[in-house]
# Entry
Amino acid sequence: MVSKAEFEGKTAVVTGAGGGLGSAIVALLNERGARVVGCDQSNEALASPHLASRHVFDLLDRVTIETAIAAILDSDGVPDILINNAGWTRAETLGALTADRIAHELDLNLAGVMIFADPIAKAMAKRGSGSVVFISSVNAIAHFGNPAYAAAKAGINAYAKSIAVELGRSGVRANVVCPGSIRTAAWEHRLAKDPEILGKLKRLYPLGRIVNASEVAETVAFLASDRASGVTGVVMPVDAGLTAGCLPFIDDILGA
# Structure
């Protein structure tokens, strides 16, 4: 049984706090006692009552990132937990890529994330403790589309390991969660366009479904917590088995 006071006395910074997954992470950390600092692109996205503090910035704007870092450290202190959740993609295939889209998605999903996380992780190391969790994607493990986003997320996986290796002796842990498709509002829009899409997904996912936001949030909370005190540098899929193997090959070729 997980204690409802697991994060009592701890401060957690969550980026992308207003999104489908971000909201689930915020709610769970708050429920377990954390003082949650939310970050997103607008005040409207940060309306959750679970937030103790709010900071608005754009991962594509270095000036606003640096201003937000200074404000967080000044008003909220060095966090105990940093959840790097914010990210975005629209170029779903190679055919959709242009030079501008490549630059945009790499800047947002890799450079912006690193620019924000780096000084905070170093501040944690100076203090002597901290847990960083990055939300990456199964796209960083195998190709499921979104090539520029996938490349950025693969970079995040590598960056997390650099923190784990170089800052571990300073008490900082860094881990990565790689969700597959998550049942959020974005998927509700896809379902509205194609009600048969879930049936198609069942053929791909060994659990016969995609994961929901609370399942991903639980994994994030575990890695952020002292329950995972010996875990660092791990890249953990939360994907209903998608990256474990190719289920259609079993069904269609081997006839299992």
Remarks:
- The chain has a mean pLDDT of 95.
- Residues 13 and 193 are 35 Å apart (CA to CA).
- The helical segments are 20-31, 62-75, 99-127, 147-167, 185-193, 197-202, 213-224, 247-254.
